[in-house]
Amino acid sequence: xxxLPSPLVCRDAVExxxxxxxxxxxxxxxxxLEKHLAQCDACSAYLDQMRATIAASGTVGxxxxxxxxxxxxxxxxxxxxxxxxGPHGFV
Length: 91
Prior knowledge:
It is a single chain. By secondary structure, the protein is mainly α. It has a domain at 10-58. The protein is 57% helix and 0% strand. It is built from 4 helices and no strands. Helix 1 (10-22) crosses helix 2. The protein is elongated, with a radius of gyration of 21 Å. The mean pLDDT is 77.
């Protein structure tokens, strides 16, 4: 008797998206994710967002992190907080 894998839940599917885009998932994991994506609009939208983010930012590899770490760090300017009262006077 062959056991069928349980269907993916969204949380597990989201964790697999990066490896899916990198092409490093096993064939079994890829098929499970693709089956889930075919039935889940939210996870399909997440995958589309990740693809768009990668396309907009380009690739990031180990050499990019070394280049950033060799530059002196600049302090991040502080942004003054503005507290706005809500409709009932609460902050």
